[in-house]
Amino acid sequence: MKYVDEFRDPQLIHDAAAEIHRLADGERHFRIMEVCGGHTHAFYRFALGDLLPPNVELIHGPGCPVCVLPMGRIDAGISLAVEHDAIITVFGDVMRVPGRGGSPLQHVARGVDVRVVYSPLDALDLARRESRHVVFFAIGFETTAPSTALTILRARDLGVANFSVLSNHVTIVPAIKAVLDSPDMRLDGFIGPGHVSTVIGCRPYEFIASHYRKPVVVSGFEPADLLQSIVMLLRQLRDGRAEVENQYGRAVSTDGNLPALRALQEVFELRTFFEWRGLGFISQSALQIKPALARWDAERRFNLPALTVADPVAAQCGEVLKGVLKPHQCKLFGRECTPERPIGALMVSSEGACAAYYNHAPNGAAPQPAHMEWR
Amino acid sequence: MCLAIPGQVVSLGPEPHLAVVEVSKVRRKINIDLLKDTPVAIGDWVLIHVGFAMTKISDRDAEEQLRLLRMLGEDEDAMRELEGYRFGRDGSEPS
Question: Is the Cβ–Cβ distance between A73 and A309 less than 8 Å?
């Protein structure tokens, strides 16, 4: 465990680790999924796995926005620049996500006008300074979607006609449900996302406890938070309880952020289906802009066709996303697919399970060729 | 992109949806419309994500969040994001 003494209460970390060992003592194997990519990154970066007994296994979930973005959406965004002379604005994370014709970064090298912004409001400001059309390529879970919603409302209020949003926003609950319904999935509990929950609160997870009888603990991002959340999950499992508990009370309330939820309600509606990279089509899992705001919806405005592009056949992103395979068990891991030259999107972001594993896994797992596994 | 940046509110306005925050001596305008139901005052700490304040936090939690970003190796990315916010910087009416 790195850096342990530099956090606010190192004793808390040691105590929580000792409590995990006590609670997990015995034959039972525990499989716990951390849903959020930020948690995945923190687990690897702080080597928290070193503090866990071998029978407490962490499974990395689908909560990394760039990792689940399907290739067809990247291609659709690029087509708006190529065919309609629009300026495409993206968050930096999106620049290296592979599409069928390459990543946005590769398209920039060929002269396509894709620009990085750090806020959707900067995309709107750009549109107000430019005569060309500006598209904001929106990605993210409920943490980010309210910002896009408020930006669209601002564009409406200011009457900005040369601005639209290509919405790729997804919602976390249907993804968790898809994981729970997956036949090859055995999980004992969930570490619930932190910042998504500042927006949606804790109530949307109730079905996991009531219907699937799995405990959920919404967690902060510090080592002590994550270990404390595992303690809370193991205590529920010991007592035979399945409840939604909130470890991250300093930022998350039960009801969530009401202005954010109102903005989402005003701007977005659920899509019937949306494709997730690696997971396939999940019903009611993504947000599209309501017809009343069609002027600011790039899909309607440019009549974008739904485009499905298969994931690379050899990549096993879906199995890794569902926790069936560990990152290094994928055939391409560390050989064809690396953070420098990603094939699957899990290798792109520092919050993707594969990139986190590649960069931080113990024993130099990164450079080890995958064929060593079966020698 | 899950991680939020802690910033301290140093001024409010000029429009009701705007505030100026300071993080490590860098000042930028942010949008505070998501905190409509929570009174925001000068000196408050907020968690910032893509130009918007998400939630208010305590001084101590803000300090820990900065430390967490440093430990995760994300402090430079966080500052790059904050410095990258352009809206309302050129004197025009900000979005």
Answer: no
Q: What is the mean pLDDT of residues A181-194?
A: 90
Quote ipTM for the complex: 0.94
Q: Tokens 């996500």 map to which residue?
A: A97
Lookup: tokens for B59? 């001084």
Cβ <8 Å between A122 and B87: yes
Q: Which residues contact A238 (CB under 8 A, 6 or more apart)?
A: A23
Residues 6+ apart with CB under 8 A from A249: none
Most B CBs within 10 Å, among A45, A121, A197, A254, to test the B interface: A121
Q: What tens digit of pLDDT does each residue of A289-338 get?
A: 999 999 999 999 999 876 666 666 677 888 887 778 888 888 889 888 88
Query: How far apart (Å, rounded) are the C-alpha atoms in residues A156 and B30?
Result: 19
Q: Give me the helices (H) in chain A, please.
A: 10-23, 37-45, 71-84, 104-109, 120-129, 145-158, 172-181, 195-200, 206-210, 223-239, 258-267, 298-301, 317-321, 353-360
Residues of chain B in Cβ contact (below 8 Å) with chain A: 1-4, 31, 33-37, 47, 49-52, 54-55, 57-58, 60-61, 64, 67-68, 71-74, 80-82, 84-88, 92, 94-95
Q: Quick one: three-class SS letters along A305-358? A: CCCCCCCCCCCCHHHHHCCCCCHHHCCCECCCECCCCCCCHHHCCCCCHHHHHH
Q: Judge: A119–B50 Cβ closer than 8 Å, yes or no.
A: yes
Closest Cα to residue A316, out of A305, A331, A303?
Answer: A331
CA-nearest residue of chain B to A223? B68
* Residue A166 and residue A139 in contact, taking contact as beta carbons nearer than 8 Å: no
Residues in chain B closer than 8 A to A151 (CB atoms): 95
Q: Which of A6, A38, A144 lies at the smallest CB-CB distance from B50?
A: A144
Nearest C-alpha neighbor of A252 from the set A274, A278, A221, A231:
A221
- pTM (two decimals): 0.90
A222, closest residue in chain B (CA to CA): B68
Alpha helices in chain B (DSSP H): 59-71, 75-84
Q: Is the pLDDT of residue A1 over 60?
A: no
B72, closest residue in chain A (CA to CA):
A45
Q: How confident is the model at residue A362 (pLDDT cuts 50, 70, 90)?
A: low
Contacts of A63 in chain B (CB under 8 A): 2
